[in-house]
Amino acid sequence: MTMKVRAAILISLLTVVPVRAEDGSPLARVDGDAITASDVEVATRLLGDIDQKDAQANQQGVIDALIELKVVSKAALAEGLDDDPAFRAEMQFLKERALRALYLRKAIERNVTDDAIRTAYDRQVGGLKPVPEVRIRHILVATRMDAMHIIDGVKHGQRAFETEAQKSLDEVTKSNGGDLGFLAEDQIPVEFATAIANARIGDVIAAPVQTPFGYHVLKLESRRSRPVPTLDQATPKIRHALESAAGVEAVSVLKAKASIEVLNARPSPSAAESDTD
């Protein structure tokens, strides 16, 4: 994002967000008006896409954008543009949007606590057991004869399985030796599961497996049990899910309490079509 675009975003957003000017010493001044660390913090949060790899460079970029913001907004005020009806309408919208974001953020903070995350973990994850997984390599060919030729060559040591995989019709896995990665048993085709049921690690299955896609030469690479995620591992996903649910619930409760009228609403395309039938 260019600095001019960043400044444009700041002009539309920072004007409706209160800034705590007392937080820290001024980082810059424009006609005597201070730009503080708090200003930079708010701007960074609202701009969202700023790369955090180089914090110091990013801070200077935000300060530059804030300087441009103040210079341009002062010029706009001097011309009385703050009285423009379009500006006032946009500011009202931005104010309501900022208030909505703040309200939902506080609602989420009240509901998504460490205890809530722990409870959700115990309910959703705590009772799970380790999941058996298998790692399979496969080579997909068009005919049974092609499959048997590959199996014979690999079993007799004439060719490596990974080399033969380059002949596979599966464009996704042919370049990595036919590796399908680790899959839970319920994620693999029933035909595969049956074929490898009694196989040992490293076995190339003696008979090709037929599916609607063709004939598969299979090799059992390894087995493992995928452990149940710990609370720390599961927390980010649980937190995200709880935050989404808390936001939706907060809005639903407020809408249920409000008196809402939708006036002069246009009918949906499906409704309009049904009226003409």
Task: Characterise this structure.
The protein is an alpha+beta fold and 277 residues long. Among the domains are: 3-93, no CATH class; 131-226, Chitinase A, domain 3 (Roll). Helices cover 51% and strands 14% of the residues. The protein contains ten helices and six strands. The strands form two sheets. A four-stranded antiparallel sheet has the order 4-3-6-5. It has a two-stranded antiparallel ribbon with strand order 1-2. Helix 4 packs across helix 9.
Q: How many E strands?
A: 6
Distance between the termini: 50 Å
Alpha-carbon Rg, integer: 31 Å
Mean pLDDT: 85
Major sheet characteristics: 4 strands, antiparallel
Q: Structural class, judged by helices and strands?
A: alpha+beta
What spatial order of strands do you see in the largest sheet?
A: 4-3-6-5
What's the CATH topology name of the domain at 131-226?
Chitinase A, domain 3
Topology (elements, then pairings):
Elements: H1 3-13, E1 28-30, E2 33-35, H2 37-47, H3 55-78, H4 85-111, H5 114-124, E3 131-141, H6 144-155, H7 161-164, E4 179-184, H8 190-196, E5 209-211, E6 214-226, H9 231-257, H10 269-276
Antiparallel strand pairs: 1-2, 3-4, 3-6, 5-6
Helix pairs in contact: 1-3, 2-3, 4-9, 5-9
